[in-house]
Design brief:
Elements (H helix, E strand, L loop, with lengths): L15 H4 L1 H5 L8 E2 L11 H12 L10 H15 L8 E4 L2 H12 L5 E6 L4 H8 L3 E6 L1 E3 L2 E3 L2 H9 L2 E7 L11 H13 L3 E5 L15 H4 L6 E5 L13 E4 L3 H14 L6 H13 L1 H22 L15 E5 L7 H12 L1 E2 L1 E2 L10 E5 L4 H15 L1
Parallel strand pairs: 1-12, 3-4, 3-7, 7-8, 8-9
Antiparallel strand pairs: 2-10, 5-6, 9-10, 11-14, 13-14
Helix pairs in contact: 3-11, 4-11, 5-6, 5-10, 12-14, 13-14
Bound molecules: pyridoxal-5'-phosphate (PLP).
Length: about 400
């Protein structure tokens, strides 16, 4: 049996996905509810990472840790092999997460009251982080087409013209599963350069791409890298979100100095001994696991698209990237409240309501398919039952 078929009971493991259902969905008893919401996987991580962590645990001293050059090289080599992106080790700053990194960049390079541009629908912290930092969030709506999204170039440029200081890009796009084309990215970068806007390119989902699509790093699309900060992490790719590790790639030396100063003023640390071990092992030895994962996800995606698109009022297509499907239920005539209520009470299925991703997400649900096929089948059955 493949490790990707094994069903683990994750309840009572302090799992946000499984143990926070009552809180998140305001329900009394979630013991029968199947969670397919937050973006982590129900799969065991690569055994090479477990072995490496165990080996480190065998040494009983856990003092202050240094990040060796090898850890940086593991990422440099990974992005070169996976995405044909050439970066220097010295451009890398490790952080606890992508979102803390984005927050640090916004704090460092914009002022309170400044405008920060995002697309919508989009991953909710792209709104909450700048807002909580006192910045004004400006949104450019993506144009919905054939169950995917396209750029609205007029809206994008009009926003940039309006004194925007930074643009947070989700590349590839969560929740739409869109893998941006090189042309789109080049045009975004050129416009941002023209209006002197810093690009924060969140590429956390970049290893989760389905053939024939191909991830283009923003740094490979842009002519000038000075105004680009890219965020990578092994946490989505290898299911390490609970271990927390991410990298900011900052080609511009001046920007790195500013970021390091902020980190020192706050006492931020690099990776800890566990996240360092996990990240390095993932990038050095995790690829065979990832290749198998992508095959498993393809089967899961096909199954869901096949079954759900037969339902009246439901439109769904296979994402180009990410393990998330974005389900359009507007044809059912149900409101978000009605469909969420049906899913939770009839099917006992927890999906993400699209409005979490902004007003543009209303009429959609996000379903996480990073789980064994038997669970996906169960989820689909619950979904179908909820709508009958
Ligand atoms: C686009 C995107 N960025 C960032 C994150 C979270 O990153 P981190 O846990 O490293 O802060 C997620 C998690 O779902 C995500 O989808």
């Amino acid at each position: 049996m493949s490790i990707f078929s094994t069903v683990f009971n994750r309840r009572k493991t302090y799992s946000a996905k499984w143990d926070m259902l009552e809180q998140v969905y305001s329900i009394q008893d979630a013991s029968e509810v199947l969670p397919m919401w937050v973006a982590d996987m129900d799969f065991a991580i690569p055994s090479v990472i477990i072995d490496a962590l165990q080996k480190r645990m065998e040494h009983p001293v856990f003092g202050y840790t240094m990040v060796p050059e090898q850890t940086k090289s593991s990422l440099t080599k990974w992005v070169a092999d996976k995405h044909q992106l050439t970066i220097e080790n010295e451009w890398i700053l490790f952080r606890q997460g992508v979102i803390p990194g984005i927050a640090e960049a916004i704090e460092s390079f914009t002022e309170v009251g400044d405008k920060v541009l995002i697309h919508t629908p989009v991953y909710p912290p792209f709104v909450s982080v700048p807002t909580n930092l006192g910045r004004e969030v400006v949104t450019s709506l993506l144009i919905e087409k054939d169950n995917s999204y396209e750029m609205d170039w007029d809206s994008f440029e009009n926003c940039l013209k309006d004194d925007v200081k930074a643009f947070i890009l989700c590349n590839p796009h969560n929740p739409g599963g869109k893998v941006w084309s090189k042309d789109d990215l080049t045009k975004m970068a050129t416009l941002c350069q023209q209006y002197n806007v810093l690009v924060l390119s969140d590429e956390i989902h970049s290893d989760l791409i389905f053939e024939p699509n191909k991830h283009t790093p923003m740094l490979n699309a842009a002519e000038d890298s000075t105004n680009i900060i890219t965020f990578f992490a092994p946490t989505k790719t290898f299911n390490l979100a609970g271990i927390q590790a991410a990298a900011m790639v900052v080609p511009d030396e001046q920007k790195r100095t500013v970021l390091e100063k902020l980190a020192m003023s706050r006492g931020y640390m690099d990776l800890n001994v566990f996240s360092l071990t996990a990240l390095q092992t993932a990038y050095e030895q995790g690829n065979p696991w990832l290749e198998e994962l992508l095959e498993v996800l393809t089967v899961n995606m096909d199954y869901v698209v096949d079954h759900l698109s037969k339902l009246e009022g439901i439109k769904v297509s296979k994402p180009e990237g990410t393990y998330l499907v974005w389900i359009d239920y507007r044809g059912t005539g149900l409101s978000e409240k009605e469909i969420m209520n049906r899913l939770l009470t009839i099917g006992k299925l927890a999906l993400e309501p699209g409005s979490k991703y902004g007003k543009a997400g209303e009429g959609f649900l996000r379903m996480n398919l990073a789980c064994p096929l038997s669970i996906v089948e169960d989820g689909v059955e619950r979904f179908v039952r909820s709508l009958q």
